[in-house]
Design brief:
alpha+beta; five-stranded antiparallel beta sheet; 12 helices; disordered C terminus
């Protein structure tokens, strides 16, 4: 059969520059002077004097100093808005990556997640071309693991919740520092703070579990760490981050405009991992993958594929899940009677309901022990859509009808 449903591929984190509102610099009346000062300090700017209690003079990081900014400490003086406006214009015109990062933090209050890898430079002071790509890939996987942990705290997610988790990263902005050794993700507070909080807690739990494993040889701490958001996906992301480096780390910094989340430390210390941690992380990832149990479900889905080797007997069926599980498609093997019911339901444009267990092996894509296959009535709009998909796939008629 040739019909293939459209899947849900992972969506890449959007690189800088991004779409509005990220690329619209804020106006002076939208900026809190204290937030601007906090962001300047976070991104390496130095305060070098200024009238105490009135304004501070800030210079950018790096050699040469560059253009300095006068930033008021509050709005209590008549020239505060003018100074803020001039500082914002100077930041907007600056070519410094740190100026860009400050503007991003002002445009949308964002928690910042920083990754870095200690990668040896070559004899001419450069790094391999793929270093930044490796860092971006590891960062992407880390963010996805954090987003998955906001949906469920399990040792292995597989394809469950993958679509909503990937969608949660759509508004995350990523910018890499020159050299490919550092990367920052800006996570908007209104939509992304649960992700940042869960990742923050999971990273510390993973660090403690690794320390416990290396000190005692036991894996019990990794079982407890699942409750904090540690999973197979997170350990694999950390392996990808550390592998090929002399050490790596992740730090979460909270948006100054939004304050520190409840139960989170301030300042949040970075979490670092070394090549010596890789055996424990790999062992934990394999353990999570091996021991995550199958899940009992009652799935309603549209039959999109049917196949069997003989005209009669059992056959394989693929469903597009409509309700009952956090996956897009499942496969199952049905006996002859259930296979016939599934085929007839599809021919008349109806989904089926089936009981079974989602098997963790393969990423929760297979339903084992299916039973109680029955057609389900749907509204006219859904029925018309199912019938249209059937008409687009004439091979389905040949396979189903030829088998009876």
């Amino acid at each position: 059969m040739t019909h293939r449903p459209v899947g849900e591929p992972d969506r890449a984190v959007r690189p800088y520059p991004a779409e509005p509102p990220w690329n619209r610099p804020p106006t002076a009346d939208q900026v809190d002077p204290a937030v601007l000062s906090a962001l300047l300090h976070r991104h390496g700017w130095q305060r070098r004097g200024g009238a105490p209690g009135r304004y501070g003079r800030w210079t950018p990081p790096g050699p040469g100093g560059g253009t300095s900014l006068l930033v008021p400490e509050s709005r209590s003086f008549p020239d505060s808005d003018d100074l803020l406006g001039e500082a914002l214009v100077a930041l907007y015109r600056s070519g410094s990556p740190s100026a860009r990062d400050v503007l991003v933090g002002l445009a949308v209050p964002s928690d910042e997640i920083h990754w870095w890898r200690d990668v040896p430079a070559s004899v001419v002071g450069t790094v391999p071309w793929d270093v930044e790509d490796q860092l971006r890939t590891a960062a992407r996987r880390t963010l996805l693991a954090g987003a998955l942990a906001t949906r469920a705290r399990v040792g292995y997610h597989g394809v469950r919740h993958r679509g909503p988790a990937a969608a949660a990263l759509e508004n995350v902005l990523v910018g890499a520092a020159p050299g490919g050794r550092r990367l920052t993700a800006f996570v908007p507070v209104p939509t992304g703070r649960p992700l940042a909080v869960r990742l923050h807690q999971a990273l510390f739990a993973a660090r403690e579990a690794v320390d416990y494993r290396r000190a005692t040889g036991g894996m019990d701490a990794f079982d407890v760490a699942v409750g904090a958001g540690v999973s197979h996906e997170l350990t694999e992301a950390l392996v990808a981050l550390v592998r090929g480096s002399e050490g790596a780390g992740i730090a979460v910094e909270w948006a100054p405009a939004a304050g520190v989340p409840e139960d989170c430390a301030t300042p949040a210390e970075p979490v670092e991992f070394s090549p010596g941690d890789l055996p424990a992380l790999r062992e934990a990832g394999a353990r999570y993958l091996r021991e995550e149990p199958s899940v009992p479900v009652r799935i309603t889905g549209a039959v999109v594929r049917m196949r069997r080797a003989e005209p009669r007997g059992e056959g394989d069926v693929r469903l597009r899940v409509i309700a009952g599980a956090e996956v897009s498609h499942v496969r199952m093997t049905l006996d002859e009677d259930a296979y016939r019911i599934a085929g007839h339901a599809h021919l008349v444009g109806l989904p089926v309901r089936v009981h079974g267990r989602l098997e963790s092996r393969g990423g929760f894509r297979r339903l084992v022990g299916p039973s109680g296959v029955v057609p389900v009535q749907v509204d006219d709009a859904e029925r018309d859509r199912l019938m249209k998909s059937l008409q687009d796939d004439l091979d389905f008629f040949e396979e189903v009808c030829g088998g009876e």
